[in-house]
Write a structure and sequence with these properties.
This protein is mostly helical and 503 residues long. It has a single domain, classed as Sodium/glucose cotransporter. Helices cover 78% and strands 0% of the residues. The protein is globular, with a radius of gyration of 23 Å. Pfam families: SSF (PF00474).
Length: 503
């Protein structure tokens, strides 16, 4: 695909870029003084890096390569891989961002299971943690595989060695700087990633002859569904809505960024701007796949590698190098964010409550240790199942089925008891797992029975049980958490700085 000279240039460029990423993380190492610094970036990140960090996390290596490959094969209907994510994200921003931020401020929340345990009691933490770990370990391992695929294609390195290299690199980078380094690095990588995707689309569009050519070619091969937004089944659209879409409500990395924002305004504005940028780049990724197939008529037996073929056939050497760096930036910016989300849950939802850790410096050490633990889990998963996309989808379904209904119900309805919420999480989680193991009976995706059983469970359990901690539930209710939390944030940060000086 690339001749040896180009590969040598790419190798040097990627090596230097990797060193720069590690140097950037080392820069933040001494500035990480507390576990809050490490896990929620000291709750002090401004707008610009926050925007690009959200964008960088939303579009990973699997999205860039996978969505483009799916669009190459399946046509314009693959836009439904993108639309649900941003439709649901808009709903989440409008209705839930402020109360999530307010609750995080009041109770110093670090993870989504923190919220679940606060609302429904400590018994609810474990099933919530299981939902989080499966989803985030699988997607972290998926990024190891993305790096391994890149190294295999470019330099002939075998998959196992590539996965191990990806694991070591991403683990070291994340271990050193925590979320603060991740977010500031993503401000650079998100810029490279976004510009790379835009440049690639503009190049492919201009060389393909435009939309009319693409449409005519689809008609010529008697496949008009390839240029129809609704050219896929309704069932497929619903699956995307209730997995990739609904998942946005309970994405722990999104919650952590809301808590990491410097002010309420930063949290809201950065999410809206990131949504716009992410939607545009997501659409461009899908359109690039469609135009590559029907406009440029590029032929491949491996649609997942269409990105590399498009780049190699349409661009000069300097641009090829830039596009490859953009791909690496896409992989890394997504991987380290999910890495931190999963590791935060290990530290905060296993080590802290079960080992009764109260000293913040010890908690900081355990937070770094948790990165290594998650790394090992993700490494084992990626080596055992080198095709992690199905596991990622299953993990997303588990996360959505287990936590979506309890989260929304717990925030909106004071009558929902602690028992009802806990049972609902277990019911949704176990139903999804059993349905998947059973081979998806009747061809029904596991997210549908999972959500149905979770919803029925919380309704029935609410009717037969009573909430216990009514004062806390009232304080955590939706209506009591819609105001500004900036003053409370400033007091919290000042208190943290004072305690550090006294140590």
């Amino acid at each position: 695909m690339f001749d040896p000279n180009i590969k040598s240039i790419i190798l040097i460029a990627v090596f230097l870029y990797s060193l720069a990423i590690l140097a950037h993380s080392f820069y933040f190492f001494k500035g990480v003084k507390t576990s809050d610094d490490y896990n929620v970036a000291g709750r002090s990140i401004p707008t610009f890096p926050m925007i690009l960090s959200i964008v960088g996390t939303a579009t990973g290596g699997a999205s860039l390569l996978g969505f483009m490959g799916d669009a190459y094969s399946g046509g314009l209907g693959m836009l439904w891989l993108v639309f649900p994510v941003y439709i649901v994200s808009a709903i989440w921003i409008v209705f839930f961002l402020k109360p999530i931020r307010s609750l995080g401020t009041k109770y110093k929340l670090v993870t989504l299971p923190d919220y679940i345990a606060l609302r429904y009691g400590e018994k609810a933490r474990m099933p919530a943690l299981l939902c989080i770990l499966v989803a985030y370990a699988s997607i972290t391992g998926l990024q190891f595989i993305a790096i391994a695929t890149f190294l295999n294609l470019m330099f002939g390195l075998n998959t196992t060695a590539g996965i191990i290299i990806g694991c070591l690199f991403l683990t070291l980078k994340t271990y050193i700087g925590g979320l603060k380094a991740v977010i500031w690095a993503d401000s650079i990588q998100g810029t490279i990633q976004t510009l790379g995707i835009i440049i690639l689309f503009v190049t492919v569009y201009s060389l393909s002859g435009g939309w009319n050519t693409v449409k005519e070619n689809a008609m010529a091969i008697n496949q008009p569904q390839l240029v129809d937004v609704f050219g896929i089944s309704t069932v497929s659209i619903l699956v995307f809505i209730f997995t990739l879409g609904a998942y946005q409500f309970v994405r722990q990395d999104n919650w952590q960024r809301v808590w990491a924002a410097k002010t309420d305004k930063v949290a809201v504005n950065s999410n809206w701007l990131a949504l716009i940028i992410g939607l545009v780049t997501g659409v461009f990724i899908v359109l690039t796949g469609v135009f590559s197939s029907l406009g440029l008529n590029i032929q491949t037996e491996q649609p997942a590698l269409i990105f590399y073929q498009v780049v190699s056939q349409t661009m000069p050497v300097p641009m090829i190098v830039i596009m490859v760096i953009a791909l690496v930036a896409t992989i890394v910016s997504c991987a380290d964010s999910f890495f931190m989300a999963g590791a935060s849950s290990i530290a905060n939802d296993i080590i802290k409550p079960y080992f009764k850790v109260t000293n913040d410096q010890k908690m900081l050490q355990y937070s770094r240790l948790s990165v290594i633990i998650l790394s090992v889990i993700a490494l084992v998963m990626s080596l055992a199942i080198p095709q992690l996309v199905p596991l990622w989808v299953a993990g997303t379904a588990m996360l959505t089925s287990g936590l979506l209904v309890p989260f929304i119900a717990g925030m909106l309805f004071k009558r929902v008891s602690e028992t009802a919420g806990t049972w609902s999480i277990w019911a949704g989680l176990l139903t999804t797992v059993i349905w998947q193991i059973a081979g998806q009976p009747f061809g029904v995706h596991q997210v549908f029975p999972g959500l149905l059983i979770s919803t029925l469970t919380i309704i029935v359990a609410t009717l037969v049980t009573q909430p216990q901690n009514t004062k806390l539930i009232e304080d955590m209710s939706y209506g009591n958490n819609l105001g500004s939390s900036d003053e409370l944030y400033e007091q919290s940060i000042l208190k943290d700085k004072t305690s550090i000086k006294n140590v």
